[in-house]
Protein backbone atom coordinates (compact mmCIF):
# COMPACT_ATOMS: atom_id res chain seq x y z
CA UNK A 1 0.00 0.00 0.00
CA UNK A 2 1.45 3.33 -0.95
CA UNK A 3 0.94 6.47 1.02
CA UNK A 4 -0.70 9.46 -0.57
CA UNK A 5 1.59 12.44 -0.71
CA UNK A 6 0.64 15.28 1.56
CA UNK A 7 -0.69 18.25 -0.47
CA UNK A 8 1.18 21.50 -0.39
CA UNK A 9 0.14 23.95 2.32
CA UNK A 10 -0.74 26.64 -0.18
CA UNK A 11 -3.58 24.61 -1.82
CA UNK A 12 -6.65 24.96 0.48
CA UNK A 13 -8.88 22.79 -1.75
CA UNK A 14 -6.65 19.72 -1.58
CA UNK A 15 -7.67 17.19 1.07
CA UNK A 16 -5.35 14.80 2.81
CA UNK A 17 -6.59 11.33 3.73
CA UNK A 18 -4.39 9.19 5.93
CA UNK A 19 -3.54 5.64 4.85
CA UNK A 20 -6.42 3.31 5.66
CA UNK A 21 -8.97 6.13 5.79
CA UNK A 22 -10.53 7.86 8.74
CA UNK A 23 -12.04 5.82 11.58
CA UNK A 24 -15.83 5.96 11.76
CA UNK A 25 -17.25 8.56 14.14
CA UNK A 26 -18.47 7.22 17.50
CA UNK A 27 -22.16 6.39 17.73
CA UNK A 28 -24.07 8.75 19.97
CA UNK A 29 -27.73 7.80 20.31
CA UNK A 30 -30.25 10.63 20.04
CA UNK A 31 -31.46 12.26 23.27
CA UNK A 32 -34.19 10.34 25.02
CA UNK A 33 -33.07 6.99 23.65
CA UNK A 34 -32.85 4.02 26.02
CA UNK A 35 -32.83 3.90 29.80
CA UNK A 36 -31.41 6.85 31.66
CA UNK A 37 -30.54 5.98 35.22
CA UNK A 38 -31.54 8.54 37.79
CA UNK A 39 -28.93 10.96 38.89
CA UNK A 40 -27.07 10.03 42.01
CA UNK A 41 -28.31 13.18 43.68
CA UNK A 42 -29.18 12.09 47.18
CA UNK A 43 -32.74 13.38 47.24
CA UNK A 44 -33.94 11.68 44.04
CA UNK A 45 -32.26 8.42 44.84
CA UNK A 46 -33.57 8.44 48.40
CA UNK A 47 -37.17 8.83 47.26
CA UNK A 48 -36.78 6.05 44.70
CA UNK A 49 -35.44 3.75 47.41
CA UNK A 50 -38.29 4.78 49.72
CA UNK A 51 -40.77 3.77 47.02
CA UNK A 52 -39.29 0.30 46.48
CA UNK A 53 -37.99 -0.67 49.92
CA UNK A 54 -40.92 1.04 51.65
CA UNK A 55 -43.33 -0.98 49.55
CA UNK A 56 -41.53 -4.19 50.47
CA UNK A 57 -41.48 -3.25 54.17
CA UNK A 58 -45.16 -2.34 54.12
CA UNK A 59 -45.99 -5.65 52.47
CA UNK A 60 -43.80 -7.58 54.90
CA UNK A 61 -45.05 -5.99 58.11
CA UNK A 62 -48.58 -5.21 56.96
CA UNK A 63 -49.33 -8.52 55.31
CA UNK A 64 -49.51 -7.09 51.74
CA UNK A 65 -52.26 -4.66 52.76
CA UNK A 66 -50.02 -1.65 53.40
CA UNK A 67 -47.32 -2.07 50.76
CA UNK A 68 -48.82 0.70 48.61
CA UNK A 69 -48.45 3.48 51.19
CA UNK A 70 -44.70 4.19 50.82
CA UNK A 71 -44.78 4.33 46.98
CA UNK A 72 -47.78 6.65 47.19
CA UNK A 73 -45.96 8.95 49.62
CA UNK A 74 -42.90 9.03 47.33
CA UNK A 75 -45.12 9.77 44.33
CA UNK A 76 -46.93 12.59 46.09
CA UNK A 77 -43.80 14.05 47.67
CA UNK A 78 -41.45 14.14 44.66
CA UNK A 79 -43.40 12.84 41.67
CA UNK A 80 -44.09 16.33 40.33
CA UNK A 81 -40.48 17.51 40.52
CA UNK A 82 -38.60 14.45 39.26
CA UNK A 83 -39.61 12.25 36.32
CA UNK A 84 -37.36 9.43 37.59
CA UNK A 85 -38.97 9.39 41.02
CA UNK A 86 -42.40 9.46 39.40
CA UNK A 87 -41.60 6.57 37.06
CA UNK A 88 -40.17 4.35 39.80
CA UNK A 89 -42.86 5.25 42.35
CA UNK A 90 -45.63 4.49 39.84
CA UNK A 91 -44.05 1.11 39.07
CA UNK A 92 -43.83 0.25 42.77
CA UNK A 93 -47.32 1.58 43.50
CA UNK A 94 -48.95 -0.41 40.69
CA UNK A 95 -47.18 -3.59 41.79
CA UNK A 96 -48.01 -3.19 45.48
CA UNK A 97 -51.64 -2.27 44.73
CA UNK A 98 -52.11 -5.40 42.64
CA UNK A 99 -50.64 -7.70 45.27
CA UNK A 100 -52.52 -5.91 48.04
CA UNK A 101 -55.77 -6.61 46.18
CA UNK A 102 -54.75 -10.25 45.66
CA UNK A 103 -53.97 -10.52 49.38
CA UNK A 104 -57.35 -9.01 50.23
CA UNK A 105 -59.13 -11.50 47.96
CA UNK A 106 -57.13 -14.28 49.61
CA UNK A 107 -58.26 -13.06 53.02
CA UNK A 108 -61.86 -13.29 51.92
CA UNK A 109 -61.25 -16.80 50.58
CA UNK A 110 -59.76 -18.04 53.85
CA UNK A 111 -63.17 -19.38 54.81
CA UNK A 112 -63.07 -21.59 51.69
CA UNK A 113 -59.64 -22.91 52.62
CA UNK A 114 -57.48 -21.79 49.71
CA UNK A 115 -57.12 -18.28 51.04
CA UNK A 116 -54.14 -19.15 53.23
CA UNK A 117 -52.13 -20.12 50.16
CA UNK A 118 -53.17 -17.00 48.25
CA UNK A 119 -52.35 -14.66 51.14
CA UNK A 120 -49.01 -16.40 51.71
CA UNK A 121 -48.05 -16.24 48.04
CA UNK A 122 -49.07 -12.59 47.76
CA UNK A 123 -47.07 -11.74 50.90
CA UNK A 124 -43.96 -13.51 49.60
CA UNK A 125 -44.15 -12.11 46.08
CA UNK A 126 -44.79 -8.51 47.21
CA UNK A 127 -41.96 -8.62 49.76
CA UNK A 128 -39.30 -10.42 47.69
CA UNK A 129 -39.84 -8.52 44.45
CA UNK A 130 -40.02 -5.22 46.35
CA UNK A 131 -36.60 -5.92 47.84
CA UNK A 132 -35.20 -6.98 44.45
CA UNK A 133 -36.48 -3.75 42.88
CA UNK A 134 -34.94 -1.73 45.72
CA UNK A 135 -31.56 -3.39 45.26
CA UNK A 136 -31.68 -2.78 41.51
CA UNK A 137 -32.63 0.87 42.11
CA UNK A 138 -29.75 1.25 44.57
CA UNK A 139 -27.38 0.10 41.83
CA UNK A 140 -29.00 2.41 39.21
CA UNK A 141 -30.18 -0.59 37.17
CA UNK A 142 -33.55 -0.71 35.43
CA UNK A 143 -36.14 -3.09 36.82
CA UNK A 144 -39.70 -3.72 35.71
CA UNK A 145 -41.85 -5.68 38.12
CA UNK A 146 -43.09 -8.97 36.69
CA UNK A 147 -46.66 -9.95 37.50
CA UNK A 148 -47.79 -6.33 37.62
CA UNK A 149 -50.68 -4.32 36.24
CA UNK A 150 -50.91 -0.65 35.31
CA UNK A 151 -53.57 1.00 37.43
CA UNK A 152 -51.82 4.37 37.56
CA UNK A 153 -49.96 5.88 34.66
TrEMBL record:
Compositional bias segments (type: Basic and acidic residues): 1-13
Transmembrane segments: 47-76, 97-126
This protein's UniProt keywords: Membrane, Transmembrane, Transmembrane helix
Matches recorded under Pfam families: MamF_MmsF (PF09685)
Recorded topology in the membrane: Multi-pass membrane protein
Chain segments carrying region Disordered: 1-36
InterPro entries, sorted: MamF_MmsF
Compartments, as annotated in UniProt: Membrane
Biased composition annotated in UniProt, kind: Pro residues: 20-32
Source species, domain of life: Bacteria
Protein name listed in UniProt: DUF4870 domain-containing protein
Amino acid sequence: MTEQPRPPDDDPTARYQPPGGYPPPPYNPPPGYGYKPPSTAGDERTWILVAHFGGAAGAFFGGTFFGWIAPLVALLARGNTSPYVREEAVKALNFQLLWGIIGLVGSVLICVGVGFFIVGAAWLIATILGVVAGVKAANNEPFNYPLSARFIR
